[in-house]
Design brief:
mainly alpha
């Protein structure tokens, strides 16, 4: 099955879409050869980190996050890294690396963190002004046009605010509205004694703009086996 487009994935991204994108990249001979020159013992991009992030972003599974304060930041860094790698090969070999599913999961993860922190009375510094319409759509498993239409017909809907061409919403207000959507799975927040483990996790806004605080470590999360050398 072909790699699916971004608009199609917003409403129903699946783990198989992530695996398909990674496998499509790994199957390209020029890319594999060049990556082998860049990474000692390179045996392909691994989908594992992105699949873990999917569990959190779409299903609200906090198990990985509560086990390590660095897990979320590492996973977001991994997203930024793989997108950078795919873009690099767009330039080098003309291969258009599909990373739409990874982008969708990345967006959903940031959106969920903003909502959850707001529910706990905290603010999540992820380099965004609020929850975007796209993030609401992904988390509700709906098309953007459907969310926009539902918002316009609901007098109780949250009021968005514009920054440039994008519309954002206050996370807590958006969450209350999203609870009425069948596809939205709110996070089951940690019990009180573990809340600090959640809100105390490392959030590094620079990483969400594509700048990793530990580039070699984030490469290890994506590249098999874990013996990466500099790009």
């Amino acid at each position: 099955m072909a790699v699916r487009g971004s608009k199609e994935l917003v409403a129903d991204v699946e783990k198989s879409d992530i695996v398909r994108e990674v496998e499509a990249f790994n199957s390209q001979w020029p890319e594999s050869h060049l990556m082998g020159l860049l990474f000692k013992g390179y045996d392909g991009i691994s989908a594992d980190t992105f699949l873990e992030l999917y569990d959190f972003a779409l299903d609200g599974d906090t198990s990985n996050l509560l086990e390590s304060s660095d897990w979320f930041d590492d996973a977001i860094c991994a997203c930024a890294l793989v997108v950078s790698v795919f873009h690099a090969f767009d330039e080098i070999s003309g291969y258009v690396g599909g990373h739409n599913a990874i982008d969708v999961v990345h967006d959903a993860a940031l959106g969920r963190v903003m909502i959850d922190f707001a529910r706990l009375g905290e603010s999540a510094d992820v380099g965004m002004s609020g929850l975007s319409l796209r993030q609401m759509s992904i988390l509700c498993r709906m098309k953007e046009a459907s969310v926009r239409n539902a918002l316009s017909k609901d007098e109780q809907a949250p009021k968005g605010f514009k920054e440039g061409k994008q519309v954002f919403f206050e996370p807590l207000e958006a969450h209350q509205w999203m609870l009425q959507r069948r596809g939205y799975r709110p996070t089951e927040l940690p019990v009180e004694e573990r809340i600090q483990s959640y809100t105390g996790m490392n959030l590094w806004a620079g990483a969400y703009r594509g700048v990793s605080r530990h580039p070699s470590h984030c490469r290890d999360l994506v590249v098999r086996p874990q013996r990466a050398v500099g790009i």
